[in-house]
Amino acid sequence: xxxxxxxxxxxGHLIDSLILTKIFDKIMDxxxxxxxxxxxIGKRKKDQSYVRLLVTGKNQKHLDKILETIYRExxxxxDQKEIILKKSPKNYVMPDNFYSTTNNHTQIxxxxxxxQVENMMMDKCIVVKGNRxxxxxxxxxxxxxxxxxxxxxxxxxxxxxxxxxxxxxxxMGSSSSSERPTxxxxxxxxxxxxxxxxxxxxxxxxxxxAIVHTGADNxxxxxxxxxxxxxxxxxxxxxxxxxxxxxxxxxxxxNVDDATLAYHGHRNHMDAINxxxxxxxxxxxxxxxxxxxxxxxxxxxxxVPFVLAGSIRDDxxxxxxxxxxxxxQREYKKMLKDANLVIMISTMLHSIATGNMLPADVKxxxxxxxxxxxxxxxxxxxxxxxxxxxxxxxxxxxxxxxIRKKRLLRHK
Length: 412
Prior knowledge:
This protein starts with a strand and ends with a helix. α13 links the parallel β18 (363-368) and β19. Helices cover 35% and strands 23% of the residues. α4 (182-198) crosses α14. By secondary structure, it is α/β, with parallel strands linked by helices. A 7-stranded mixed sheet has the order 5-10-8-9-7-6-11, with no helix packed on it. A 6-stranded parallel sheet has the order 16-13-12-17-18-19, sandwiched between helices. It folds into 3 domains: 1-79, LOR/SDH bifunctional enzyme, conserved domain (Alpha-Beta Plaits), CATH 3.30.70; 80-160, Beta Barrel (conserved putative lor/sdh protein from methanococcus maripaludis s2 fold); 168-411, putative lor/sdh protein like domains (Rossmann fold, 3-Layer(aba) Sandwich), CATH 3.40.50.
């Protein structure tokens, strides 16, 4: 065995989930060498496979780089070492060379056993407290926290192809084509929303103001009213334009129904903001019957929680908007806890922010008219992602129509 060699092993659904292929590719891309020393392929669909490899680099630095890369694809060292912990020198500061997390399920080898890291997210650190480990953002790091240092003692479980068979995500793969049959995709998305809720799953919507501009406000309102939404994440703009549309029939001063410019329409969104401030909150506006329809109305009426995160460009913003960005992040994370399906609609920034807070096994649907926005969101590390390049004003009503059909069939 070369001086610069390391035995690694990997187990799971290695072949059909392409995990082994990725490990081989990474080693070869980095100009390393490998030798398969043991391989045991699962014979049935649910059987796991096991492979032991000898990985060789040109020198120690080269080998370390290869190992660091393939550990993040699910490989672990045959001779397992304990994690190294270093204390945070002060609040918000992590030790140099801290372990930066992926969004895949992660375990650490501590005191002779594997411990699952809780609250998994990408681009965070791991804090160990007693016999528990937590994924922690930098703003939550406290002086003296024990933080995982380096790459030793880490085991990542990469995403595997689901065993249960074809669903919308497998059907489409990680696709973002605008040339797929829209009706068929809408039907598949409707089935997944319907089935997720039927199983008691949690569905979160991340939405931008284009939902209102394009005429999809009524469709999303119906989804909320029908019980298919468990939380809404958005910015000031979605709420403002939804309330403008509900009270004045316009969005950004344009008549939503016929796309004509309303008389004095440029001031309508400011009138909507003013109306909310007069009421004191969106909830009070509903209570006093000043707001009687729309997305925010249905959220209040059906007790669907929402988080509105502020930005520097906001008009107002509304009294319900969280203007402290750190607080808004925390509230987003609380809302996303235990989510099963997240639907991101026409908002790149809020969607990317949300994607960074999700484990890799949460199903994500991204809908946007802009191909590059969909591609950017699909590249954030979420593996069960369906990208749909479409006008949300046309697509969302199709989805709701399909859900309506399924509900009618159920009640017959």
